[in-house]
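QA checklist item 7 of 12: single-chain prediction sanity check.
[x] sequence parsed
[x] length recorded as 465
[x] structure emitted
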Amino acid sequence: MTRTVPNRSLRLRLTLLATLAITVTVALVTAVLAFTMVSSVRSNVLTTLNAYGDSVGQSATAGTLPNPLPPAPGDSSIWAQVVDSSGTVVTSTANVAGQPALYTLPAGRTTPQSAPGAPGRGDERVIAQRYVTGGEPVVIYVGGSTQLLSYLDQDIQGHLLYVLPLIFLGAIGVSWLLIGRTLRPVERIRAEAAEITGSDLHRRIPESGSDDEIGRLTHTLNGMLDRLEASADRQRRFVADASHELRTPLAAVRTSMEVGLAHPDRAPWPELATRAVTETTRLQRLVEALLLLARSDDNTLLRHREPVDLAALARTAISAAPTRVPVELRAARPVHVTGDPDQLARLIRNLLDNADRHGNHHIEVTVAQDDPDTAVLTVADDGPGIAPADRDRVFDRFVRLQAARTRHAGESTGTGLGLSIARDISTAHGGTITITHTTCDHDGREHGATFTVRLPTNAPPPEST
């Protein structure tokens, strides 16, 4: 059986980390302070011993050693012995009077050693200094108790035994409260986000207005919800429009078949079959367009890129597509772009199909190079034109202007996706597509529609984000 490690909350992990950091910091600071304090006391003891030894040494050099030696200033516990080369005590302080030499100093050494048979002195620090008095070499031993250092060490250790646990417990409590208070907005954001479902994407997480990490997190999540809501709205509209568009040809095919089946002996079967084929072809074009838009939404519209002669591509598209209105191509020389030739051909066909559907007598296609980095394709018709207010909306999916529908009532109309696909292909190639009027009469009325596509000639388009 596989065992799973239980999840620990972020608050608990942060509390443990903060407590560990506080405890380690306090322990290190305490250790440094204790070491500094002990070193300071030890240094003071050594300084006092050396100063007293120097004063005794000056008396020895002058040949005026008193017996007994005067006590050390400020600390009567310090003792001193002046020992000659034979190990005899010449003089000493009163607190060690009558005692034999307590320490010896081997030749070539600076650190004294306990003399054989000398009584134990406990914890003390001893220094030794060599002098000459009255022509005889002597060694001055000066010692002082270090019992204070032992007491200090024990006191520090004793305090740490109960202070550190208290600090540890206090750090846990304070860290738990402070971290909980800090993470409270995050938990509120999580709870708000958890309540937002696909059916109420209009809801937003309340923003505090602060410019800290919590405020930026809330703003980012709300921005994500904005994009999700917009995407869901587009998807719902797309599904509704697609369902509506698919229903029409399916209903036409079904009606034709039902009429024929209702009167099989009198039904105009060739006419019904022709109508069924027409509606099936329209249905096929619609499904292909929907699949292409799905690829565009997934940023997989372009399968590959290669150098393409846009002028030759336009010439091929014009010759291959039967049109109701005559088409004139103006392309003085080849214009090369980098892109997917199949999708660029589809872009030209969609624009030609739109111009042929709305043009009256003439369509003009122009391919030129605007500057060394930009190729320009224009498709102009002499139809009723597109009002400035509709020139952006006409690129939306399933949008057909009312004028176009009225003009072609009863005729084969488009799917409402051609211009949207053309814009997606242009954008995928790093280009743009815009609409202007073709002509303007003396009364200022605009006529015709000119679609202008601008594409980079060599540089690949930027990656979609």
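[x] summary fact logged: The longest helix spans residues 10-62.
[ ] second reviewer sign-off
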